[in-house]
Amino acid sequence: MKKFFRVLLLLASAVSLSACGNLKNSSLANNSKTTSSTKTKTYQTTETGNGGYTVLLKDGHYVISPIAGLTATTNDNSVDTREFERGLIQISKSQYSTSSYVFQEGQYLSTSTVNDWLARKAPSNKTGLNPALGSKKQYNPYYLEEILEQDYLTGSGSSYRLGGMSIGLAMNSVDYYQKVKDGPEYQEDISRSDQKDYGQQIADQIVARLRKQKDLRDIPLTIGLFSKTSKDSLVGGTYFLYGTAAANSSKITSWKPVSQQTEVLPTVGNAKAINSSDASSFNSFKEAIQNYFPNISGVTATLRYENGKLAQENIAVTTQFYGYEQVQSFTRLALSTAKKYLPSSVPLEIKIGSVNNVQALIAKETADSDYQVHIYGGE
Amino acid sequence: MKKFFRVLLLLASAVSLSACGNLKNSSLANNSKTTSSTKTKTYQTTETGNGGYTVLLKDGHYVISPIAGLTATTNDNSVDTREFERGLIQISKSQYSTSSYVFQEGQYLSTSTVNDWLARKAPSNKTGLNPALGSKKQYNPYYLEEILEQDYLTGSGSSYRLGGMSIGLAMNSVDYYQKVKDGPEYQEDISRSDQKDYGQQIADQIVARLRKQKDLRDIPLTIGLFSKTSKDSLVGGTYFLYGTAAANSSKITSWKPVSQQTEVLPTVGNAKAINSSDASSFNSFKEAIQNYFPNISGVTATLRYENGKLAQENIAVTTQFYGYEQVQSFTRLALSTAKKYLPSSVPLEIKIGSVNNVQALIAKETADSDYQVHIYGGE
Lengths: 379, 379
Prior knowledge:
Oligomer: homodimer
Distance between the termini of chain A: 36 Å
Number of helices of chain A: 6
Radius of gyration of chain A: 24 Å
Order of helices and strands of chain A: HEEEHEHEEEEHEEEEHEEHEEE
Shape of chain A: globular
CATH superfamily of the largest domain in chain A: sex pheromone staph- cam373 precursor domain
Strand order of the largest sheet of chain A: 1-2-3-4-5-6-9-10-11
Strand content of chain A: 25-35%
């Protein structure tokens, strides 16, 4: 019913779009003309900067995957969400080059299919990819929490065809459960080795199932295994393994490790930082700005390491400022302090504010300067 | 009592600062050494970019004015706050050049003095600058809502002296009142001409009072008259008049108009935009991005005009995005759409997000790029 409504909405917007045709060619590469048929389909693409994918729009709209956000349990930690998607795009780049392929959110897996797959296997749900509940003595956890599909297409003009697909499997590192309804909550830790074993098993089953769809027979299928964090984690999970089933193959023959780590600074308790020099430069920055300004309630950083190397540092400074000149003056101080203490050759974001919810910024600072674009969290 | 506590806090932080002396010289121009006396005072300054003032720090801290935020009534509209401060700094620049003077939030007017000044004149409050309540037939509104002090200092090293002062007077354009306690609310509109007459009267009284303080006898005193908005306004108020009493003079002899206007687009009802071409370019931008993306719940712009010319355009795009690639892709679309439709020679901010509370951003977009700084709302 929901899906039917979505289709209706899409049709409605296609109609409303044709009423303002001058916008259609605006800033998008409009690659096709509609022909006079009942099924009009136009494709446009949006450029993406900094080595990202061009995104395919359909009938003038960004297309959302119907399975986005479906989860097996209700224990989802939202800090995982962004990295689950971003990480799979990064993995895909090694398989589907950004110059030959365009991106679209997954359109082949439906809500009902994925809901069945995420549920436990049962006589009434033969396609369930999570194990049956088990016995009183032996509880079987939910291993698979979430499935993400990304489509990579080739083509131009009015003709695009699927050239490859990536599937992300979010594997729980902790499963939370109750023995009786409304009873106390128990938790079952899932080792990396179990995440790996179950993840690879599930991956092979998914590849076999996808091969039954005609459109998916002769394309490469890439599957990434993502380790979700616990409910209380401050840092999001990371991918730890990926592999590709070549076109027409029903199996992933070789898996490659993904070496990625994230951490939040300052560390909690006696936890050791991944890199002590990065931790100490952050600490100097933090102390300097906290000593010179009142009303700074927190300075934290999220660092991402790839293959042991710092790849991105995002700092959040939480303030209770209200004055215009105070913000101006503090920002300049933070800038010069950052130049002095923080690593000079790493993408860096310093977000100054009271809450975490601006996602992107485009600005022209002065009348003569060019636009600058910033995506929160880095690219 | 509150102030005593503040002083204690300042002393405490001066002590804690001396324990980490290596930070003191960090990114600040530390102009003096403390000498061994009970009263240690060190000054530092922070650079400010884009033609702003250098800010004087005292004992390593940004100094806040004790009268910031005091109001005569409880009907304050917070959209006025930023412009009340920013506008007075702009006015001050014509009087106190940014190359010779440094900025400090006002330190000469105390909380108790200003509370008395903002209250109604009464036998028990002879210094009240708002009129007595009046009779049943003739209600006298609160004309003066808020007072802002800014100090402009000259000097270097350990010696700074006050070189000029600016005072902002926020004059109500509407006063809200009740005839009986908990009764219905009435409102009294105050014409621009009344704002001007009362504002100028009050300004002269304030100049005369300030001249009685020894430090304030022989410096120029600049007073700006600010018109506050109604409680429901979406745009902040603006300054409409300013004048300076020369050193040793007890009167402002010539007042100069400030021609500034602000508006929010799209306009409400049949209201006419200040400049139809700016309104139409914004509208094209808005339609283009709303047609191509779902989940955009609002696109609004705040435009500021100075002497009839567009000086700043700030656009807020409210989204319900969650996906990584959706934000990336939308931001690129917004960028190219902005380049196509929006004015090319005006400082511009496009804030994309779900709420309005990040105040500033510093970012290095890639490993090789320089830092870029953005202050929300423009400079």
